[in-house]
């Protein structure tokens, strides 16, 4: 196993920690733990990174988590990659100024790749994480849905990924939407394929991870890290155990 980076995930909606099933806002599970308290717990467990998403902004625009982001980064040593509703260069700059180490860019990376490539050049490849949500169609092609996964963008994964790789993309988070929030295991075939298409991109597995064995398996097909969502927050494994496994190898 390589030196994988683990990203415990906190998704926030209406100020609460939530998880969505396959990105559906109508299929939401709310958790009692407050976002800052959960972030503190992850930091105390030894997490070096946090994946923080503003679900309200992802839907309506206008990142709202700057106060929470500042509180996390000033009260812990964790580095944070965060996003939701990133629409402009000013949004990227504001989130970085609020303390983020990386800004997650999703739908806009599909809709306006030249704009986002410009951000890679301006802010640096280490400050941007491109998040591509994918769905495999009946022909076996990987589509890139947008608008809450309700619309096909008309783009396909491979040409867009190659375009970003040629522009110097370093950090890619990719989610098979059919696995998101399902605890069905990550799509290892997808990640193996991405690693073949863009071997120098640092790939983060996201969606379906159930246990530490899934983290190890994702690492084995070329993932540099894994985003830990539902299984972690519901206590199906301990973050300390996962981090120990990563650091031992």
Describe the structure in your own words.
By secondary structure, the chain is α/β, with parallel strands linked by helices. The protein has one domain (5-248): TIM Barrel, CATH 3.20.20.70. It has helices at residues 35-44, 55-60, 66-75, 89-97, 107-111, 113-123, 157-166, 188-197, 212-220, 230-233, 239-248, and strands at 5-13, 16-21, 24-30, 49-54, 79-83, 102-105, 128-136, 142-146, 151-156, 171-176, 202-206, 225-228. It has an eight-stranded parallel barrel with strand order 1-4-5-6-7-10-11-12, surrounded by seven helices. The longest helix has 11 residues, at 113-123. The relative contact order is 0.15.
Can you describe this structure in just a few lines?
This protein is an alpha/beta fold. The protein is built from eleven helices and twelve strands. It is globular and about 40 Å long.
SSE layout and pairing:
Blueprint: E1 5-13, E2 16-21, E3 24-30, H1 35-44, E4 49-54, H2 55-60, H3 66-75, E5 79-83, H4 89-97, E6 102-105, H5 107-111, H6 113-123, E7 128-136, E8 142-146, E9 151-156, H7 157-166, E10 171-176, H8 188-197, E11 202-206, H9 212-220, E12 225-228, H10 230-233, H11 239-248
Parallel strand pairs: 1-4, 1-12, 4-5, 5-6, 6-7, 7-10, 10-11, 11-12
Antiparallel strand pairs: 1-2, 2-3, 7-8, 8-9
Helix pairs in contact: 1-3
């Amino acid at each position: 196993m390589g030196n994988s980076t683990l990203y415990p995930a906190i998704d926030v909606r209406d100020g609460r920690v939530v998880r969505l099933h396959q990105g559906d806002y109508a299929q939401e599970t709310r958790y009692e733990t407050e976002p800052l308290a959960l972030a503190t717990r992850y930091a105390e467990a030894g997490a070096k990174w946090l994946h923080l998403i503003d679900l309200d902004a992802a839907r309506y625009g206008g990142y709202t988590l700057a106060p929470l982001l500042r509180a996390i980064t000033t009260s812990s040593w964790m580095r944070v990659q965060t996003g939701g509703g990133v629409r402009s260069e000013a949004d990227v700059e504001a989130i970085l100024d609020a303390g983020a180490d990386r800004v997650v860019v999703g739908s806009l990376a599909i809709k306006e790749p030249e704009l986002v490539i410009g951000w890679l050049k301006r802010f640096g490849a280490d400050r941007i994480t491109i998040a591509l949500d994918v769905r495999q169609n009946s022909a076996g092609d990987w589509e890139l849905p947008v608008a809450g996964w309700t619309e096909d963008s008309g783009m396909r994964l491979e040409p867009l990924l190659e375009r970003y790789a040629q522009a110097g993309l370093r950090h890619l988070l990719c989610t098979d939407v059919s696995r998101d929030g399902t605890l069905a295991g990550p799509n290892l075939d997808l990640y193996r394929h991405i690693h073949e298409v863009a071997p120098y991109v640092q790939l983060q597995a996201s969606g379906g991870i159930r246990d530490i064995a899934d983290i190890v398996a994702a690492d084995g097909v070329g993932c540099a890290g894994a985003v830990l969502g539902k299984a972690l927050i519901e206590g199906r494994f301990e973050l300390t155990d996962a981090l120990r496994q990563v650091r031992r190898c």
